[in-house]
Design goal:
The protein is built from 11 helices and 7 strands. The protein is about 40% helix and about 15% strand. A 4-stranded parallel beta sheet has the order 2-1-3-4. Strands 5-7-6 form a 3-stranded antiparallel beta sheet, covered by helices on one side.
């Protein structure tokens, strides 16, 4: 990631860290907990921090995190590697408790204020895990999906691929839900681990070179219309490690300037 990209992420995190928009409604005060980078390929869209996460300042730093990591097949070092895995809750701060017990829902001010900017700062995301009902409702609203229950969305996970994968929230209550829905462990978890592995896999490189101005212009046009590959390099000097060819030598001798592209599969 470029220095400019790092500054963008750092500046955004600084703004989020200073946010006081809903401070009056937060019983423990503002402490946004979010993990992002410009190179992350997997996004875990969750609900809101609990008290343990609030005090630790680390997402899923509790028993629910252990359960989620087990579902994903990721250990703690891989899970908390923000260069590859981003964790963005619907509400960044601990929202407090409901009168009848249980954590309150994420504050409604948070997602409209920050989510668009956060997602725009992470252009390499390949898969978003929608963990819990609030994350799924937020995505449904953004994508115009029909109303559905959490269980129905998880059962129909294939309908949301390759961009999204809905999951239940990994709280202690979910153990009961899993026993009632054995298809989750039998069908969903193997598919989930395969999709996570796909998203985290490094992209393959596609190299293109041409000395024909018409073809160069056409290549630029086609590349600009697609989103399967990102342009890692476009230069008129042969990159280090690229083999020289006799066609290249002939073109340069004739006064034509080759263009070289390096494209990385998203």
């Amino acid at each position: 990631m470029t220095a400019r990209g790092r500054e963008s992420i750092e500046g955004l995190l600084s703004e989020i860290g200073a946010c006081q928009v809903c401070a009056a409604h937060l019983p423990l005060g503002p402490r946004p907990v979010i993990h992002i980078s410009g190179t992350a390929r997997l996004l875990i869209a969750s609900q809101a921090p609990g008290t343990k996460v609030h005090h630790a300042g680390i997402s899923f730093w509790d028993a629910s995190g252990d359960r989620l990591r087990g579902w994903l097949g990721l250990d703690k070092p891989a899970f908390y590697d923000a260069r590859r895995v981003a964790i963005v809750p619907t509400g960044f701060c601990y929202p407090g408790r409901l009168p009848q017990g249980g954590d309150a829902p994420p504050r409604p001010e948070c997602a409209p204020l920050w989510r668009g900017r956060v997602l725009a700062a992470m252009p390499e995301i390949q898969l978003t895990l929608l963990v819990g009902r609030y994350a799924q409702v937020d995505a449904a609203r953004a994508n115009g999906w029909a109303a559905s229950s959490m269980t129905e969305r998880v059962r129909d996970f294939r309908a949301y691929l390759p961009r999204y994968f809905p999951l239940p929230h990994p709280s202690w209550r979910t153990g009961v839900w899993e026993r009632r829905n054995p298809w989750f462990g039998e069908v969903v978890l193997p598919a989930l681990r395969a999709e996570v592995a796909r998203a985290l896999a490094p992209g393959g490189e596609w190299r293109i070179a041409s000395d024909d101005p018409t073809y160069q212009a056409w290549t630029d046009e086609v590349i600009g219309r697609q989103d399967l590959f990102r342009v890692a390099l476009r230069t008129q000097s042969r990159p280090e490690g690229w083999p020289a060819t006799r066609y290249e030598a002939k073109a340069i001798k004739a006064g034509r300037k080759p263009v070289y592209w390096s494209l990385i599969k998203r």
